[in-house]
Design brief:
The protein is 12% helix and 52% strand. The protein is mostly beta strands. It has an 8-stranded antiparallel beta barrel.
């Protein structure tokens, strides 16, 4: 009986310290990025350069399905056009998806979107940054640690935010990204 108790204690310790399950360390991630506008939002036109930032702290993590680890977070996603406003949202979840089928990707999802980017003052959730890589590029479901790790996600990088007044999506490719998690 004593051996079974030790086995169970050890098994629970491993389970709740394993990456992608249960509790996560209070990991903090910061990134900066550039976006090339693909469409118009008020005074922002196709081809205009915008700058963005991502800042979040991981609160917990769970295995969403066989290929996805989701991280509950708190933080801010921001995109700005010099002299033409900005849009911000609260980052609530980050998904790391590893799949052998189509693409590995990380999706950074923000809600409670607000701002005045290009003069647009109404938005609909969510605001997203999605970074794609070829299938089986990511070797773990952990968040990338270094700038080089983040830049492995280079197959396609995309920003989007929804505007309810026009039922349009403002979007553009991310042309540069830099950051780390500690």
């Amino acid at each position: 009986m004593h051996r079974i108790a030790w086995f169970l204690i050890l098994a629970f310790a491993v389970l709740f310290s394993a990456p992608g399950t249960g509790r996560a360390n209070a990991e903090h991630c910061t990134l900066t990025f550039s976006v090339a506008a693909e469409n118009t939002i008020g005074t922002v036109n196709p081809g205009d350069a915008l700058t963005g930032s991502i800042d979040f702290t991981v609160r917990s993590a769970w295995q969403q399905d066989a290929e996805t680890v989701s991280y509950k977070t708190s933080g801010t996603l921001r995109l700005a056009a010099a002299g033409r406003g900005e849009v911000t949202g609260a980052i609530k979840v980050v998904h790391v998806v590893r799949t052998p089928y189509t693409a590995d990707y990380i999706s950074i999802d923000a809600v409670d979107v607000k701002g005045d980017l290009g003069g647009q003052e109404r938005y609909a959730d969510p605001m997203l940054v999605t970074l794609y890589a070829a299938p089986v590029t990511l070797t773990t479901s952990a968040l990338p640690k270094t700038n080089a790790d983040w830049n492995v996600l280079s197959k396609r990088r995309f920003f989007q935010v929804h505007t309810p007044t026009t039922m349009a999506t403002f979007y553009g490719p991310i042309t540069r990204i830099s950051g780390n998690c500690r």
